[in-house]
Amino acid sequence: MSDVMWKLRDDHKKLARLMDLIAREVRVFDAGETPDYELVANILDYTQNYPDLYHHPVEDHVLAKLRLRDPEAAANVGDLVQEHEKLGALTRRFAAALHNVVQDETLPRDWFVDIAGDYLTFQRRHMQMEEVVFFPAALRALTEDDWRVIQNTITMPDDPLFGDGEDQERYDRLHREILKWGKPQDVTDFAPS
Ligand SMILES: [Fe+2]
Ligand SMILES: [Fe+2]
Question: Rounded to the nearest whole angstrom, what is the distance from the C-alpha of residue 11 to the centroid of ligand 2?
Answer without folding.
Answer: 7
